[in-house]
Structure formats: structure tokens, C-alpha cells
Amino acid sequence: MKDVTTGGDSVPVKFAIEGTMRVYNYPSFPQNMDNEDFGRFPEVARVGGKAPDGELIDARDESRVRLSELWSGGVTVLEFGSIT
Amino acid sequence: MAEEFAPPDFRFLFVYAREAHPSDRFPAHTSLEGKLEHARAMAERLHMKRPMLVDDLEGTVHHAYGRLPNMTYILKPGGTIVYRASWTDPTTIRLALERILFERDERRAQRRITPYYLEWQPQRSNDRIAFVEGLSEIGERAVKEYIAAVEHTEGEASAKRLKEWWARKGSGGERR
Fold first, then answer.
1. Which residues neighbour B38 within 8 Å (Cβ) at sequence distance 6 or greater?
2. Distance in Å, alpha carbon of B167 to nearest chain A alpha carbon
3. pTM score of the predicted model
4. Among the four A48, B116, B138, B141, which has the fewest Cβ within 10 Å?
């Protein structure tokens, strides 16, 4: 697998020419659809445990929020996705 | 559902992760600004009222929660995970939220409740023709790459119907 490091913003981003799920922002849909993340999912952040905290950016005003601030107020339904 | 199970008791949040099917109109993110644009486009296109929260370019939060394209978690106040699913399924999310309401009512009535553990592996609808119909709204490249991936991973027989569908539909270029 070849890597290409591109510039862009201040954070360098690696792309894999062949494209695999292991490269986070893959430029093309990976040809091998066997996503090992599905197999690992049962072991990640388990029920009964504490959810991982982290910082996110509110798309409305670009303010930064921590998940722990958001989940303190009530039951939180956290859905992940993208437009594609 | 977000309107039905409303604040302050419930809060629905959307976390924008990497592009699952990069297209010409919505390519893989190379900048945070670009990722924010995609997130805003999604919120507008789907008339989303939920807060749209964007992960960093490296997908730090996405990684921590399992890195799947369409997963959902339900957290109790304080951050305890009470539900997690590898696929966003409104039916089981509703079931979980109604169960949480039951628990709240029991506590308020001072009736004793105790936790138990449940594991469940339901099946979801996975009509691939319907899926690629939706992908065609994203762009031709997304459709072609998905069909090629099905063929590469599962073989020619699995991709045959999809290829026939695509041939009938015609490659009319990128759709909106």
C-alpha cells in the first residue's frame, strides 16, 4: 500500500492509493468491504461502562463542546454518520 | 423521534464522521472547514433540527466509539452507556427510550428496579437496489465504487443485479 501525504491545512493527512478502511479519510470507497470494525464493535466502549469523552465542533457557530458537558443534562442519543 | 422524546429529559445529537462513500460532490475530507461544510449541507438537506457536531479531521471521537459509519449510542446522565448499536435503527432506539421512560416512572413511584444484561443481534433491511438508488443522489462515482466493491468482496454473482440496475438507469453523471 502506497501512502501519499498531502498538504492542505496545517494537519497533514495521509491517503492510501489503494484505499482501505485503515486509512481514516479514504479517498475512494474501499474495494474490500470486509470492515474489521464491525467485528471489533462488541468490545469497544461497552454497555454499563462510561462513554468516551471528547471534543466536537458545533456546526452552527463552530464553538467547541465536550461530550461530557452535553451528556450531563439528560439522556443523550448519539448518532454517527455523514451525508454520504 | 427527537421531537417526541424532547429536552430536557432527552437530547439527540448527531456526530459528523468521515465520508462513508466519498463522491465528487462530497469527497473525503482534507480540511476541517470542508468537513464543516459537508455537515452543514447534510443538516440543510435533511432539515435536521438536532445539534450537528463535527468530529476532528482525524476522527478522534469516531474512533473512540467504534469507527462504524452509522452507529448509535444512548447515554444516561453522567455518561453511562445503556444502549449501543452498530447500525442506527429507529425501532430499537425507540424501544430503548420507552424503556428508559418506564424506569423513570418506576423510580418516581418508588418501586424497586434493578438492571439486567441483554444482548441482541437483530437483522435489518438491506435492499441493495434501494441503497444504490440513494447513493445515486450522492454521485455516480459513489455508485460505481460501491458496485465494484461488492463484486470484489463477494463475487460477480452478488454484483450482477446491481450492474444490471446501473446499466438500466444509465450513467447520467452526478446527481444532486
1. A82, A83, B16, B19, B26, B29
2. 20
3. 0.86
4. B116
Domain spans of chain B?
Answer: 14-108, 128-169
What confidence tens digit (pLDDT) does each residue in B93-123 have? 999 999 999 999 999 999 999 999 999 999 9
Strand partners, A58: B53
- Cβ of B40 and A34 within 8 Å? no
Of A43-47, B41-45, B105-109, give the lowest mean pLDDT range. Answer: A43-47
How is residue B29 annotated by DSSP? P
Contact between B67 and B15 under an 8 Å Cβ cutoff? The reply is no
Q: B15 and B61 in contact (C-beta within 8 Å)?
A: yes
Q: CB-CB: which of B31, B149, B154 is closest to A8? A: B31
Whether pLDDT at A4 is above 50: no
Q: Name the residue with higher pLDDT: B100 or A9.
A: B100
ipTM, 2 decimals?
0.91
- To 5 degrees, how large is the angle CA A52–CA A56–CA A60? 150
| Contacts A–B by Cβ distance under 8 A | 247
CATH of B14-108, one of 3.90.79.10, 3.40.30.10, 3.40.50.11720, 3.20.20.220: 3.40.30.10
Chain A contacts in chain B segment 156-175 (CB below 8 A): none
pLDDT 10s digits, B2-30:
777 877 789 999 999 999 999 999 999 99
Cis amide linkage into residue B90, ω under 30° from 0? no
